[in-house]
């Protein structure tokens, strides 16, 4: 696709908790953080609720990438390099099977 992704064309996915929820392997993520793990090693953690995106200069990618939201009442959004976003509900994790992440935002909303 030429030119990039317009705001109107962006999609939002919701990560549903349940059997597909994956616990990060060796390292841990304490409340109230949203952590990024690569192959079980924590490579980042975020705590602040923000109204704008926090950029991920390392641009982590899957496979082997897990985003864990330990917050009890706040959702976390991850942004993909193509502009799409995924919402991760409170107390759940999301496994990135492919693609590159460019940003994270923690929202005080309790649901996606």
Question: Could you explain the architecture of this structure?
Answer:
- The structure is a single chain.
- With 112 residues, the protein is mainly β.
- Helices cover 0% and strands 38% of the residues.
- The protein has no helices and nine strands.
- It has a five-stranded mixed beta sheet with strand order 1-7-6-9-4, with no helix packed on it. A four-stranded antiparallel beta sheet has the order 3-2-5-8, with no helix packed on it.
- A hairpin with a 4-residue loop joins strand 6 and strand 7.
- The chain is globular and about 30 Å long.
- The protein starts with 11 loop residues before the first strand and ends in a 5-residue tail after the last strand.
Task: Furnish the topology, listing elements before pairings.
Layout: E1 12-14, E2 34-38, E3 41-46, E4 54-55, E5 65-69, E6 75-80, E7 85-88, E8 92-96, E9 101-107
Parallel strand pairs: 1-7
Antiparallel strand pairs: 2-3, 2-5, 4-9, 5-8, 6-7, 6-9
Any descriptors?
112 residues, 5-stranded mixed β-sheet, 9 strands, single chain
Taken in chain order, the helices and strands follow as EEEEEEEEE
**Rg on CA atoms, Å:** 13 Å
The tally of helices reads 0
The gross shape turns out to be globular
Strand content: 35-45%
- Structural category is mainly beta
Number of strands: 9
Strand arrangement in the largest pleated sheet = 1-7-6-9-4
Oligomer: single chain
Which residue ranges are poorly predicted, with pLDDT under 50 across at least 5 consecutive positions? 1-12, 16-25
Question: Main sheet?
Answer: 5 strands, mixed
Helix content: under 10%
Distance between the termini: 28 Å
Nearest-integer average pLDDT? 83
């Amino acid at each position: 696709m030429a030119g990039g992704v317009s705001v109107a064309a962006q999609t939002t996915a919701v990560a549903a908790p349940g059997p597909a929820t994956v616990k990060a392997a060796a390292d841990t993520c304490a409340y109230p953080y949203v952590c990024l793990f690569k192959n079980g090693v924590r490579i980042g953690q975020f705590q602040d609720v923000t109204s704008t995106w926090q950029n991920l200069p390392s641009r982590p990618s899957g496979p082997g990438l897990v985003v864990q939201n330990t917050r009890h009442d706040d959702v976390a959004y991850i942004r993909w390099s193509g502009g799409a976003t995924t919402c991760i509900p409170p107390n759940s994790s999301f496994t990135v099977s492919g693609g590159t992440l460019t940003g994270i935002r923690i929202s005080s909303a309790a649901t996606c």
